[in-house]
Recover the amino acids of this structure.
């Protein structure tokens, strides 16, 4: 299993996932709606989420996947983000289970990916979790 999980997340307090999909011209891999509940006893969600997964691999290996989503998609995301109807974020989750494994260390983002993120007005969120056995 890869130490990385990468996905694009669009969050909105005013748009349901269907409206985000219409705006972007792409369906999500997963979504939650405003007013939905995680569990029956949970409070209703105050925002929607629209998620497109890039996959599980090192960021540099998934970069072609993200760039293949295209410039038009990035521009649509950017228009949505600057409209203040939604926030766009590329989420990188890294789980480090072996600090000595070079494949689990370091994150490289190329200028092409950073440019795509700039066009999409996406923030970059990197969550890192280190799991080691106490000795």
């Amino acid at each position: 299993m890869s130490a990385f999980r990468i996905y694009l997340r669009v969050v909105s307090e005013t748009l349901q996932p269907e409206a985000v999909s219409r705006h972007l011209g792409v369906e999500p891999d997963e979504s939650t709606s405003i007013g939905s509940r995680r569990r029956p006893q949970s409070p209703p969600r105050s925002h929607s989420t629209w998620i497109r997964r890039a996959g599980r691999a090192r960021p540099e290996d998934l970069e072609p996947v993200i760039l293949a989503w295209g410039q038009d998609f990035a521009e649509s995301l950017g228009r949505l983000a600057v409209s203040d109807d939604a926030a766009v974020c590329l989420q990188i989750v890294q789980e480090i289970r072996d600090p000595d494994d070079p494949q689990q260390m370091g994150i490289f983002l190329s200028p092409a990916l950073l440019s795509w993120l700039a066009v999409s007005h996406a923030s970059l969120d990197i969550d890192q979790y280190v799991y080691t056995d106490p000795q």
